[in-house]
Amino acid sequence: MSSKRSSSFRRAIANGRRTLQREILLDETGLGLYKRFVRYVAYEILPCETDRRWYFHQNRLCPPPVFIAVVTIVQIIVFMCYGIMLNKWVLQTYQPDFMKSPLVYHPGHRAQVWRFFSYMFMHVGLEQLGFNALLQLMIGVPLEMVHGILRISLLYMAGVLAGECHSGISAY
Questions:
Q1: Which domain of life is it from (predicted)?
Q2: Residue 61 in contact with residue 32, Cβ under 8 Å?
């Protein structure tokens, strides 16, 4: 039976037996700000003490978790541009000029594929933008530190596409 196991399964078993410097991650002292943040992320995201310690000791700042931060900054910039252009900061979606935007999804423009993804930059008002930015930064950045930019960006874009498909269906 053991000869039929894949190499990735054997690597996972070997990683489970890895040795680490200390028993409990909280025993680490004299940590800088970044390493304390990494420890916090490990305790918030990872369920097993062995995984927390391994992540803490293997974590590097390269590549940095930039995807969620960049998306959040672009969302804020787009919102501010539309706020200045429309002179309205709340319920921008009720403005006719807003609905004519090339970023907003409209069922009549399904041939314009970028609209399936660009609508992630659009927000109704300051409350929605602030809440989304807060959640993205508090949850998305630590998840990106644990899972990497590729997994988180694919998951984020899948969520955008799923939300777009839902809004496209409910528009009819």
A1: Eukaryota
A2: no
Q: What is the pTM of this model?
A: 0.67
What tens digit of pLDDT does each residue of 49-86 get? 888 887 777 666 677 889 999 999 999 998 888 888 77
pLDDT at 46: 79
Q: Are 75 and 132 in contact (CB under 8 A)?
A: yes
Q: Please name the residues in contact with 75: beta carbons below 8 A apart, sequence gap of 6 or more.
A: 120, 121, 123, 129, 132, 133
The encoded tokens of residue 76 equal: 């804020």
Scan for tokens 């787009």, then name that residue.
78
pLDDT digits (tens, 9 = 90+) for 15-43: 655 544 545 566 567 778 877 877 887 88
Residue with tokens 């037996």: 17
Asked if 146 and 55 touch (Cβ cutoff 8 Å), the reply is: yes
Q: At what angle do helices 49-58 and 33-45 cross, to 10 degrees?
A: 150
Q: How far apart are CA 121 and CA 163, in angstroms?
A: 13
Only one residue has tokens 């978790």, namely 65
Measured in Å, how far apart are the chain's first and last C-alpha atoms? Answer: 54
Buried b / exposed e across 75-100, counting CB within 10 Å, b at 16+?
Answer: bbebbeebbeeeebeeebeeeeebee
Q: Torsion angle, CA of 162/167/169/171, rounded to 10 degrees? A: -170
